[in-house]
Structures are given as structure tokens and as C-alpha cells.
From TrEMBL:
The lineage of its organism: Bacteria, Bacillati, Bacillota, Dethiobacteria, Dethiobacterales. Residues 1-21 form the signal peptide. It is found in: Cell envelope. This is nitrite reductase (cytochrome; ammonia-forming). The keyword Cell division does not apply.
């Protein structure tokens, strides 16, 4: 019996020896990682579980180790979380938004989103949806489509990389996985998006997102408005509320340099700014934000199944799991609460329909003014500027994915501003066709001659000047 036990122990030692040796080798050079790793929940796991080619790397540091970011690795231990993460993996692509909003093709004419604009699916589908889109596919976009990107950025992958070639070569194979938000060495939440790090560093003290916890910041890595910055070969997050966007747009031209940030609208006759999913910015200063709730509190609530409590990782609308997301604070039934949410969204939706219809009419007037003979160019320029602002404020709502619920009061205020700008753009474009100047006064040729040169006020002024001259001469 003792011989058998000794044999088993010896076999286990020999089998585990390479792993122990490899882990020990790693700590010799990577002590900055090894310290937190050995004190964290993954300390009993060997580095080789996520890093291939470790022995060759230990023998020759120039031989880079492999990095595995597959969610399945985490799922071996975190099975409930993984099972919710893959929920919806087999779901069909969502329909084009133009089917629900036919005017989108007109309002976004000239931009790729006019032809391919779908509702998002869950994170497990991010890479698939990216591959299947007909829109241009930049390597920068992949930061929020695949977790293979952040750790290879400016190495294997760069601003100029061809995403098709990267996927064909197997450099990019995974969608967004656990490591995008969790440090695999410590399991703690962390930020890997350089643009967010830069935005946080320049954030003023009075910024509405100043106190956002990591449970919100990990989402703000992607669910935020952005611009490509060709000069810096990076992404830039304005990271401001919509009220500050006109000043931001006026302060930089980077949004004009790529089709992602701005494009020439054929009917508006001017370049427009393309807003990109500002969920984080819309949420700031909302009721739930001011109560201290993070994105994860509602979108990733804790739930219990089979006696085990864990965090949902489906990352979908809370309407899909109202009980754990909402009923911890709200006393209504699920049916009553969903009805409240739908009422808020439908109110904002109705206003949005009015705004889109008014913008459509403004585009008709702008297009006509652009072709009219004798048009007043100054008035037309003002009409186009008003339409620019109308589009900015409208799309701040339209590109945001909560149908107004993240901040219903701001969504309504934003659409009301868009409506006012659209009405002014329409009216000014009509006035421009009639040759009227921006202030609404008639053209100079239509002003009566006696009004062009006010004789009486001129004579009175001349008499006053003459009297003053005579007075000073007499005093001398």
C-alpha cells in the first residue's frame, strides 16, 4: 500500500514539475505581475493556462509567449457567468434600423450608416457582426470588437492594419471577452482602452463622470462617442455632454478628416458630424446616475441559480431580467415597471418622429435653396449651420441605444433643441431662396431710396457738429 502511495505521489510530482518550474521561471522576470497574481484568486493556476510557448520564452526571452484571451478558459471555472455571456450567440442579426425609421436613409445620406445600420447584439456576436457589415472596417474599430486587439496594439496591430488580413492570419479571432474588463492575473476590473485613459486624465474637477466607478468605466471603454485622430493614429473621446459638443467640434478638425467623424450631406450642402453611441454621456446626471448606480447594477445584476449567486454577463437590456435588475429598488410588479419604461421610451420616440420629419422638410428646403438663382448665400450659410446643429442634437439621441431611458429628461431636451434648429434651418433656407439676408430685413435693392440714406438724422447731426465748432471758436 505504501509503495502505491509513493508511486502516485511521485507521478503527480513529475507531472506537475514542468508547470511549477514554468511558474517559477515567470516570477524571475515578471515580478510586477507575479506579486499581485500570487495574492489573487488565480494564484493556484499556472501561467501556461493562458500563455502558450512559455518554456521557449523562458529559454529565450526574444521568443514571445502566446496569449490566449478565449472566454472558454474562464468558463471552465466561472461556468454560470460564461453561460450567460454566450446567451444569444445563435440569435439572428437584428433588422436594419431603416425598416423602423425609413427617414434614416435621407438623414444619413452619403454616410455608410445610411445603408447598413443594425441594432447591436450581445458581446459574443461583436466580431461576427463586424465581419458581416458592409461599412468600412478600421483596425481602430476592432478595439471594441475583439479582445485580441488591446494587448497587440502598436505591435502586431496598428492604425494602418488591414482587418481582413489580420482575421485571415488568425491574429484576430475572438470577440470581446472577459479580459477586456477583468485583469486575468488578479480578476479585478481594469481599463485597457487608451482613449478612455487619456479622457480621464484631462477630465476637469467638475465633470459629471468624475466619480464613476470601474463598474461604469469598463463600459465607457466602448459605449461612448468618439472620433478617429489620423494625426495621432488613435481614437479620441470628447467625453462631454451634448451641450458642450458644439464647442468641442469648433475646437478641432480631426472629425473632418475621416468619414467616421464627418461627411458631406448631399442635400444639406454641408459637412455633418457623425455621433457614435454616447450611452455613457447620456447617462451622466440622470436620476439613476445621481443615485450612484453603475452600468453593471442594472445591466449585470447579481442573480442566484442552483444555490449559486453570480453576476449576469448577458450584457443586454434590463428589460430582459427585470427582477434582479430593478425590483431590488422598485416596489412595482414586473409588468407595471416595464409599462413605465415603455411609456418613457414611447414619449421620447414620438418626439423623435416629429424631429425627423422636420429635418426631412429642412433638407427639402436646403436642397432647393442650393439650386435657386439669386439665393442669398449668407442666409443659406446660416440655414446650413442651423441644420448642422439640428443633426448633432438629433443624433445624440438617435445613436444612443436606450431609446431615451438612460436619461429621459435630457433626451427630450436634446430633441427639443434639435427640433428648434431644424425649424430655423427650414425657414432660413426658404428665406434664402427669396434673397433675404440673415436678419430677415429685405434685400438692399428693395429698400426705398429715402430709407437707404436717412436725410433728416444726417442734417440734425451735421447741425450739432457745426454748432459745437462755432461754440469753441467763440470761446477762443
Amino acid at each position: 500500500m505504501g509503495t502505491r502511495i509513493a508511486t502516485v505521489v511521485l507521478f503527480m510530482f513529475l507531472f506537475a514539475a514542468p508547470a511549477f518550474a514554468q511558474g517559477e521561471n515567470c516570477t524571475q522576470c515578471h515580478d510586477d505581475v507575479a506579486g499581485p497574481y500570487q495574492q489573487g484568486p488565480h494564484s493556484d493556476m499556472d501561467c501556461s493556462l493562458c500563455h502558450e510557448n512559455g518554456e521557449a520564452h523562458a529559454a529565450s526571452p526574444a521568443e514571445a509567449p502566446g496569449v490566449s484571451v478565449e472566454a472558454e478558459i474562464c468558463g471552465d471555472c466561472h461556468e454560470p457567468q460564461y453561460n450567460t455571456y454566450v446567451t444569444g450567440e445563435d440569435a439572428d442579426q437584428t433588422p436594419q434600423k431603416q425598416e423602423q425609421y425609413p427617414l434614416l436613409r435621407r438623414l444619413l445620406a452619403g454616410h455608410p450608416f445610411a445603408e447598413d445600420y443594425r441594432e447591436p447584439r450581445s458581446h459574443i456576436n461583436m466580431l461576427t457582426d463586424f465581419v458581416e457589415t458592409s461599412r468600412p472596417r478600421s483596425a481602430l474599430c476592432m478595439f471594441c470588437k475583439s479582445s485580441d486587439v488591446y494587448w497587440q496594439w502598436q505591435d502586431t496591430i496598428s492604425y494602418e492594419s488591414n482587418t481582413g488580413e489580420l482575421m485571415d492570419a488568425g491574429v484576430i479571432v475572438n470577440p470581446i471577452t472577459c479580459v477586456q474588463c477583468h485583469n486575468p492575473h488578479t480578476a479585478e476590473l481594469r481599463v485597457v482602452q487608451p482613449a478612455l485613459t487619456e479622457a480621464l486624465e484631462r477630465m476637469p474637477e467638475e465633470h459629471p463622470g468624475k466619480e464613476d466607478p470601474l463598474q461604469t468605466l469598463v463600459c465607457a471603454q466602448c459605449h461612448v462617442n468618439y472620433n478617429f485622430n489620423p494625426g495621432a493614429q488613435s481614437v479620441e473621446f470628447p467625453y462631454v455632454k451634448v451641450a458642450e459638443m458644439p464647442d468641442y467640434i469648433a475646437s478641432t478638425d480631426i472629425w473632418r478628416e475621416t468619414g467616421t467623424g464627418g461627411w458631406e450631406h448631399p442635400d444639406a450642402g454641408t459637412m455633418l458630424y457623425k455621433v457614435q453611441h454616447p450611452e455613457t454621456e447620456m447617462y451622466w446626471d440622470s436620476i439613476h446616475h445621481n443615485l450612484g448606480l453603475s452600468c453593471a447594477d442594472c445591466h449585470m445584476p447579481k442573480t442566484t441559480e442552483n444555490g449559486q449567486t453570480f453576476t449576469l454577463h448577458w450584457l443586454a437590456s434590463p428589460l430582459n431580467h427585470l427582477e434582479p435588475s430593478c425590483l431590488g429598488c422598485h416596489n412595482e410588479s414586473e409588468e407595471e415597471l416595464e409599462a413605465r419604461v415603455r411609456e418613457v421610451q414611447e414619449t421620447v420616440y414620438s418626439l423623435n418622429q416629429t424631429v425627423m420629419s422636420t429635418m426631412d422638410g429642412a433638407l427639402d428646403s436646403l436642397a432647393a435653396a442650393g439650386e435657386a438663382a439669386g439665393v442669398n448665400e449668407d442666409t443659406l450659410a446660416e440655414a446650413r449651420e442651423n441644420y448642422f446643429q439640428a443633426h448633432l442634437f438629433w443624433e445624440w439621441y438617435a445613436a444612443e441605444n436606450s431609446a431615451g431611458f438612460h436619461n429621459s429628461s435630457e433626451a427630450q431636451e436634446t430633441l427639443e433643441r434639435a427640433l428648434a434648429y431644424a425649424e430655423d434651418a427650414r425657414d432660413l433656407a426658404v428665406a434664402a431662396q427669396d434673397g433675404q439676408p440673415p436678419n430677415g430685413a429685405p434685400p438692399a435693392d428693395d429698400v426705398p431710396a429715402e430709407d437707404r440714406f436717412p436725410v433728416l438724422p444726417f442734417l440734425v447731426g451735421l447741425a450739432i457738429v457745426a454748432g459745437a465748432i462755432i461754440y469753441f471758436i467763440k470761446r477762443r
